Amino acid sequence: MEEIKIKDEYIKLGQLLKLAGAADSGVHAKILIIDGEVTVNGEVETRRGKKIHSQDIVSVAGYGEIKVI
């Protein structure tokens, strides 16, 4: 499980995917999310603007898990 540290209160899901390297671009992140390949805390998330907070766990099909700290 990869850990990503954020300095603000939250990060948007699309931004997190790019920061972690799970998506090459914003368009790639959007496609992953729309296709239902991303879960947040075990639930499929289809909004790329979803606010991800510290201790949330994001899972991406074909990539793995990302824990926000």
What report would you give on this structure?
- Pfam families: S4_2.
- This is RNA-binding S4 domain-containing protein.
- Keywords: RNA-binding.
- The structure is a single chain.
- This protein has 69 residues and is α+β, with helices and mostly antiparallel strands.
- Strand 3 (38-40) and strand 4 (43-44) form a beta hairpin.
- It has one domain: Structural Genomics Hypothetical 15.5 Kd Protein In mrcA-pckA Intergenic Region, Chain A.
- The mean pLDDT is 96.
- Helices cover 25% and strands 33% of the residues.
- The protein has helices at 13-20, 26-34, and strands at 2-4, 10-12, 38-40, 43-44, 51-53, 57-60, 64-68.
- The chain has a 5-stranded mixed β-sheet with strand order 1-7-6-3-4, covered by helices on one side. A two-stranded antiparallel ribbon has the order 2-5.
Number of helices: 2
For the CA atoms, what is the radius of gyration? 10 Å
The level of helicity is: 10-25%
Rough outline: globular
Biggest sheet: strands side by side, in what order?
1-7-6-3-4
- How many domain units? 1
Number of strands: 7
Succession of helices and strands: EEHHEEEEE
Summarize the biggest pleated sheet.
Answer: 5 strands, mixed
Extract low-pLDDT stretches: none
Give the termini distance in whole angstroms.
12 Å
What is the name of the CATH superfamily? RNA-binding S4 domain
Q: Beta fraction of the residues?
A: 25-35%
Indicate the structural class: alpha+beta
Round the mean pLDDT to the nearest integer and report it.
96
List keywords for this structure.
69 residues; alpha+beta; Structural Genomics Hypothetical 15.5 Kd Protein In mrcA-pckA Intergenic Region, Chain A; 7 strands
